[in-house]
Structures are given as structure tokens and as C-alpha cells.
Design goal:
heterotrimer; A mainly alpha (about 260); B alpha/beta (about 260); C mainly alpha (about 260); B: about 260 residues; alpha/beta; Rossmann fold; 6-stranded mixed β-sheet; 4-stranded antiparallel β-sheet; 7 helices; 10 strands; about 30% helix; C: about 260 residues; mainly alpha; MetI-like fold; 10 helices; globular
């Protein structure tokens, strides 16, 4: 156990840098050392936040973004799950589909945006954009999870004369579930990143990314900062929740590692 | 009455192909096991004893010769032959009772519950029904694995070095347990081990195998009364008999028997 | 030997089935005018446009510009990430001071920085390079930190027993042992950089392969869009392959474990 003094020291060290930056930021903008419109003071940011809370645009836009990300995430991860399972279970399908899947995966995600705008599906374009990015981690992790099911367990199934279907539901699925959860966590994280991108690359759908984009056009830096803090916060909350879920369902796997 | 199995292994040979070479794992094995017998197969690592076991349980195929269970040829794994692996292979995501219930087929839920409960008590794990494998010790996990293998009343139980992963003291407790379970279930048991002490303690017959290629070296009957006394001279002499097959016995200037 | 070769050929052959069928399918439905050929571009048209763009030199020009941006941003971001990661791994104190801030910053989804950075740096080269550097910084930082931090205590103890100086320890033990992680970091950072350069070029004016895609969209010329997408994907793939080759030649001693690929 750390002594009280050392604990206090650690807390101070952790707060040191943020505190200095905060104070410097405050003074710099108070005394107009830096242009107010490019470096809003903390006060500016707070008042900006109050402003968008009041006129309702903050939660309105946040709502749109969150719903959008959930749509894209669900679409992409469910598709990805089925693809991953299929590839893991059938060697033939793996050989058939993997090359083209890998080829498509090479394309950096933003590149899909103009294409999706061109086929002008409106909101669906944005959701698809997110779904494409959401799908990859789930495919990869689920595939790994299914492929890595321990041969030993499958032999137990053989000895008890499990049918292929029974083996799949009783051995492969539970055994690969933790890997799938990891894939889902990564997928949600990417989805949230892509929602902002979608709103910037494919505007006119509302959302917090678009709010930040138009604030930039009007040089409302304070609101841009509000947006940044908001998306960081939501992203963190999502990640935190997913990690907890992951831990919950993988309890047997984590401790398995420890006992070895 | 429980049905137990007789096993006849006739002229069984097996080769493994790898890249260029062919490894002769088993060479002309002949073995017969009577109903209700406890036999152990003893040999050095690599002598093919595990392969022989896997052939009998049906996890490996493609061999020359015949293996007959109660006079019928084998056709892959089946519920009349159970196996206990060296690494218990309990499913870590299931509780003990769910694990034990794994192999049960064609019973109602109430029947299942009863069978599971009986077997958990049989192996001495009462009270641990809802525990997960990671919460159990090695010995307890192995007991759960034994319970799992017995739920379908197999005619023959195969055990592949089941106690290898346990410490020496736990192993001795498990010897007593295995003997007790064997008596209660009246089941034929075939166990692979490299622990001579264990073999002499538990078996009716000891099958000695030599390595590369795996051949049957000798079958040694163990006519000692049960429960066996590790401290007795008969026990020690039996051990020496087995060790002699491996040239590990101690040379004596004279022999005597009482 | 023969037996193994035919299995490999079989794998490759099966892998080609879908792409070939797809190409044939699209060509056919275009010929039969089942779908408007403005939207669904027949593959042969994409190839023609591709060759045209190479001929006029436009493609190589766009590529050169994008690539130089990526290089600049990647070098900037990854080296900063590497230095920071190393310092943080070596000094527990600096880790405690810097980690909270960096953790907070890393929570911001990368594309969220675009409005802010654009206001600060405009829409020119500076913005793009800084944005890319941002993307390259974090993966490199994390992997460098974990790589050095995770060097087995056993190796460090050997170095101590031989009285290695700190510099020697870093050079001869920590960095080589952390090399696999460093390479993972480089791959991630480079992949991120390539993705961000395309993103940046979509929203800010100027040449580049990302801009090429947008330009194609503005002209409603899907073939240009597809050429852009294919080129961008292919270059990313080449970078990845090159890095892998480099990595395996540099790390012949490394035994792949279940945790790295």
C-alpha cells in the first residue's frame, strides 16, 4: 500500500499538466494574448454550452448522432457477426469469400463517402458508411474466435456424439463469444468515430458532427470545443460500458488465463 | 443390472503419415479385456498407448486389424464407450452440473436432474453443483470429468493418464476414489498411465507396452487382494516385476518368497 | 511436395471465383441495360479510365501529393508518439503526469478534430499534415509504451547483472525486445495516416487521391470515383505488404505467439 504522502504526490502529478494548461488557457484568453475567436476561454466554452443547451440544439443533435451510430453499429455488427461465423465454420466459404473481403477492407473508410453520396440514399448513405466500418472488427474477431475454438472441446463433443449443429450451438458459440464481444467493442468505437465523419462528409442530416462543421463555418470556436468535449464524453461512456459487458461475459476466460 | 463390456483388440496396427515419413505407432497389438476388469496400460511416452486408447474410443480411425466391443466392430465414437482425458476438458463456461449433464440423451428434465445429482455425489462433489471449473482444484475438476463420462452408463470407461496433472498426494486420494467408483459402477476400466505404483494399486492386469513401434511387451496379472497395501512385500514384488520390463528394477543377490 | 502445391493452387483458384463472377455479372447487366450504366460502371470502363488518368499523368500527380502528405504527417506524428511513448515507459513519473491528458485527448474521435484544426490551420497543407500527424501519434504512442513497458523483467535483470548503462539498456535490450510492438504501432499509424489523408482531402480543397474521388463525384463520373477507390485501397495494401516484408526480414528471430499476427 502506498503511503499517504506518495498517494498525494501521485494525485498532484496527475493534475499538474491539465491544471497548467487550464490556467494558461484562462489567462491567455482573458488578456487577449491569443485571438478570442480561435482560442475561446473556458468561460466562453461554458456560455456556449449553455446557449446550445437552452435552444435545444445540443441534445437534438446529440440524439440524432447517437441514433445514427446505433443504427450503423447494429447493421454493421450483425452482418459482420454472420459473415465471421460463416467464414469460421466453412473452410470452403472462407477460401471463397476472404480474398474479396480483404480487398474491400483495404479501402480506407472515408473513400466510401463520395460513392455513397452519389447513390444518394440520404440517411441510409450515412448509416451504410458507418456500417461498413463497423463490420470489419466484428468479422475479424468472430472469425478468430470461431477458428480458435479448442480442438480438445470439439473432441469432447465427438465422444458424446454431438451432431454438427449441436456442436455449433453448445461448443463453438459459447467458446467464441468473448472474442465476438471484443469485436463488438472495437466496432462501437469505430462507429462513433465514423458518425462524426459521416456528418462532416455527408452533410444535411443533422447531428453533432454537422453542428461542429457549421460552427466552424461561422467561426464559433467555442461551440466547436463544446462539440469536441461532448463527443469525447459519449465515446468514453460507450467504451466504458462495452468493457464492462465484455468482462461480465468473459469471466470464465479471464480467470482461466490466471489459473494457467 | 449394469451392462459391462468385453473388449477384443486383434492384430491392430496403426501408422501416422507426416510429410515424407511414415511413423509406425502401433504394431500388431492383441489384447482382450473381460467384463468388469480394471486394466492399466503402462509404457514410456511415445509408445502409442494414448493412440491405442483413442482408437478404442473412436477418436482415431484408419487402422489395420479389428477392435470388437462385445463382439461387434467399432464405428466411430459412441455412448457405450466413455473417456476421461488428462486435461479434464470441462467446458469453462458451464457449471459443474451443466458439464456433467452434457452427454445425457433422451431423458426428461426430471430424470436428467436425478442422474446428474447421483453422479455428482458418486464422485464426491456434492455441494459444488453450481460452481464453475475455474473455481475447482485439479482433483475436483477431474472428478467432475469422471462423473460426466459415466452418466450414459458406458460399457467401458477409458482413462488417459487422468491423474497426471495432479500432485502426488492428491493422486493417492484419487486412487482410492477411482477404485471405489469402479466397484460401485461395476464397469470395465482401461487406464493409461506411466506411474507403476498407480498401476499396481488399481489393476487386475497390467499391460506393458514398448515404444517405437508400439508393441505389447507383456501382460502381467495382479492377483493381489483389495484394498491393496502399498507397504506389503507382495505389492513391492509386483512393482519390481513391472519395473523389470523397463530394466528399472533393483538387482538382488538372492530372491525369496514367503 | 507436389501434394502441398496443389492445395495452394486450389485455394487461390477458389478465391478468384467470386471476383471473376462479379466482373462478368456486372458487365452483363450493363450490356443488357438492366441497370443504368451511369451508376453501375462496367469494370472495363473503370480500367479504361484508369489508363487514361495514368496517361495524362494526373494519377501520378495526385498520388505524389497524397503520398508526400502522408509521409510528412506520419513522420511527424509517429516520431512524436515514439518519443513520448519511450519517455513514458522509462519514467513512471512522466507517465503519471502526461497520461491523464493524453487519455482524455485520445477519447476524442479523430474526425472530430477536423473543425477545430480547420479553424486553426485553414484548409491548406498545414491542416492536412497536422491532422494526419494526430492520427499517427496515438497508435505509435500506445504501442511504443506497451512494447517497452512489457519487456520481460527477466531480460532487464540480465542487463543489470552485467551493469549495463541506461543508454545501453535502451539500445540493446528494450528497443529490440519491443520491436514487434513497434512494428504493430507503425502499421497502425501508417494505416491511420492513409485513412486520414483521404478524409482530409475529401473536405479540404487541393489535389490528391481523395480529392480525385470527390472530383469524380462532383462530375457525376462514377468511373473516376471507382478508380480513386481502387487506387487508394491498392496503395494502402502495398504499404502494408512492404512493411510486413520489412518486418519479417528485420525480425527473423521472432516467434509469432497467439497474441500477435
Amino acid at each position: 500500500m502506498k503511503s499517504k504522502n506518495i498517494q498525494l504526490m501521485h494525485v498532484l502529478e496527475a493534475a499538474f499538466l491539465p491544471a497548467i494548461i487550464f490556467v494558461a488557457w484562462f489567462f491567455a484568453s482573458s488578456y487577449d494574448v491569443l485571438p478570442r475567436n480561435l482560442f475561446p476561454s473556458p468561460v466562453d466554452v461554458l456560455s456556449g454550452f449553455y446557449e446550445v443547451l437552452n435552444d435545444g440544439s445540443f441534445f437534438y443533435n446529440l440524439n440524432i448522432s447517437v441514433i445514427r451510430v446505433l443504427k450503423g453499429f447494429l447493421l454493421g455488427s450483425i452482418t459482420g457477426f454472420f459473415i465471421g461465423i460463416t467464414l469460421g465454420v466453412s473452410r470452403f466459404l472462407e477460401k471463397l469469400i476472404t480474398p474479396i473481403f480483404n480487398a474491400i477492407r483495404q479501402v480506407p473508410l472515408p473513400a466510401w463517402a463520395p460513392l455513397l453520396v452519389l447513390v444518394s440514399l440520404g440517411e441510409m448513405s450515412r448509416v451504410l458508411f458507418i456500417a461498413i466500418g463497423a463490420c470489419y472488427p466484428v468479422v475479424l474477431n468472430t472469425f478468430e474466435g470461431v477458428k480458435n475454438v479448442r480442438h480438445d472441446y470439439m473432441e469432447v463433443g465427438k465422444v458424446f456424439k454431438f451432431s454438427k449443429v449441436k456442436s455449433f450451438f453448445k461448443i463453438i458459440l459459447p467458446s467464441s463469444f468473448p472474442a465476438t464481444l471484443t469485436g463488438l467493442r472495437l466496432s462501437l468505437s469505430i462507429s462513433w468515430m465514423l458518425v462524426v465523419a459521416a456528418e462532416i462528409f455527408m452533410t444535411s442530416g443533422g447531428g453533432i458532427g454537422e453542428m461542429m462543421w457549421s460552427c466552424r463555418e461561422f467561426s464559433r470556436m467555442d461551440l466547436v470545443v463544446v462539440g469536441i468535449i461532448a463527443i469525447a464524453f459519449v465515446g468514453f461512456a460507450m467504451n466504458f460500458t462495452m468493457r464492462k459487458l465484455e468482462r461480465l461475459f468473459s469471466f470464465w476466460r479471464i480467470t482461466l488465463k490466471q489459473s494457467r | 443390472m449394469k451392462s459391462t463390456g468385453t473388449l477384443a483388440v486383434k492384430n491392430v496396427s496403426k501408422k501416422f503419415k507426416s510429410q515424407e515419413t511414415e511413423i509406425h505407432v502401433l504394431d500388431d497389438i492383441n489384447l482382450s479385456v473381460k467384463s468388469g476388469e480394471f486394466i492399466t496400460i503402462v509404457g514410456l511416452s511415445g509408445c502409442g498407448k494414448t493412440t491405442l486408447l483413442r482408437l478404442i474410443v473412436g477418436l482415431e480411425s484408419d487402422y489395420a486389424g479389428d477392435i470388437l466391443l462385445d463382439g461387434r466392430k467399432l464405428n466411430g465414437p459412441s455412448l457405450d464407450r466413455g473417456i476421461v482425458f488428462q486435461d479434464h476438458r470441462l467446458f469453462p463456461w458451464l457449471t459443474v452440473e451443466k458439464n456433467v449433464a452434457l452427454g445425457i440423451v433422451g431423458k426428461t428434465d426430471a430424470e436428467k436432474k436425478e442422474i446428474v445429482q447421483n453422479h455428482i455425489e458418486l464422485v464426491g462433489l456434492k455441494g459444488f453443483e453450481k460452481s464453475y471449473p475455474y473455481q475447482l482444484s485439479g482433483g475436483m475438476s477431474q472428478r467432475a470429468a469422471i462423473a460426466r463420462s459415466l452418466v450414459n452408463n458406458p460399457k467401458i470407461l477409458l482413462l488417459d493418464e487422468p491423474l497426471g496433472a495432479l500432485d502426488a498426494l492428491t493422486r493417492m486420494y484419487m486412487h482410492k476414489e477411482l477404485e471405489r467408483i469402479w466397484k460401485e459402477e461395476s464397469i470395465t476400466m482401461i487406464m493409461v498411465t506411466h506411474d507403476v505404483d498407480e498401476a499396481v494399486y488399481l489393476s487386475d492386469k497390467i499391460v506393458v507396452m514398448s515404444a517405437r513401434p508400439g508393441k505389447l511387451q507383456k501382460i502381467i496379472p495382479v492377483p493381489l487382494a483389495r484394498p491393496r497395501d502399498r507397504a506389503s512385500i507382495d505389492f513391492a514384488q509386483m512393482k519390481e516385476k513391472v519395473l523389470e520390463e523397463f530394466m528399472l528394477h533393483t538387482e538382488h543377490n538372492f530372491n525369496y518368497s514367503i | 511436395m507436389f501434394f502441398i502445391k496443389s492445395e495452394k493452387i486450389e485455394t487461390v483458384a477458389i478465391g478468384l471465383i467470386v471476383p471473376i463472377l462479379l466482373v462478368i455479372f456486372i458487365e452483363v447487366i450493363c450490356k443488357l441495360e438492366v441497370v443504368p450504366c451511369q451508376i453501375v460502371i462496367p469494370p472495363h470502363k473503370v480500367v479504361i479510365t484508369f489508363l487514361e488518368l495514368i496517361n495524362t499523368g494526373e494519377l501520378s500527380e495526385h498520388f505524389r501529393i497524397s503520398f508526400s502528405r502522408v509521409l510528412a504527417g506520419f513522420v511527424l506524428g509517429a516520431s512524436l508518439g515514439f518519443i513520448t511513448g519511450t519517455v513514458m515507459a522509462l519514467s513512471k513519473r512522466s507517465e503519471r503526469i502526461v497520461a491523464p491528458l493524453l487519455s482524455a485527448l485520445s477519447q476524442v474521435p479523430l474526425f472530430g478534430w477536423i473543425p477545430l484544426l480547420m479553424l486553426w490551420f485553414g484548409i491548406g497543407e498545414t491542416f492536412k499534415v497536422v491532422f494526419i500527424a494526430f492520427g499517427a501519434f496515438f497508435p505509435m504512442l500506445i504501442n511504443t509504451f506497451e512494447g517497452i513497458h512489457g519487456v520481460s523483467k527477466s531480460y532487464i535483470e540480465v542487463a543489470r547483472a552485467f551493469e549495463f548503462s541506461s543508454v545501453k539498456l535502451l539500445k540493446k535490450v528494450l528497443l529490440p525486445a519491443a520491436l514487434p510492438s513497434l512494428f504493430t504501432g507503425i502499421k497502425l499509424a501508417l494505416g491511420m495516416s492513409w485513412m486520414l489523408v483521404v478524409g482530409a482531402e475529401l473536405v479540404a480543397a487541393g489535389e490528391g487521391v481523395g480529392y480525385l474521388i470527390v472530383w469524380g463525384r462532383q462530375l457525376f463520373q462514377m468511373d473516376i470515383v471507382f478508380v480513386g477507390i481502387a487506387v487508394v485501397g491498392f496503395i494502402g495494401y502495398l504499404m502494408f505488404l512492404t512493411l510486413n516484408m520489412f518486418e519479417s526480414s528485420l525480425m527473423r528471430w521472432h516467434r509469432p505467439t497467439a497474441t500477435n499476427k
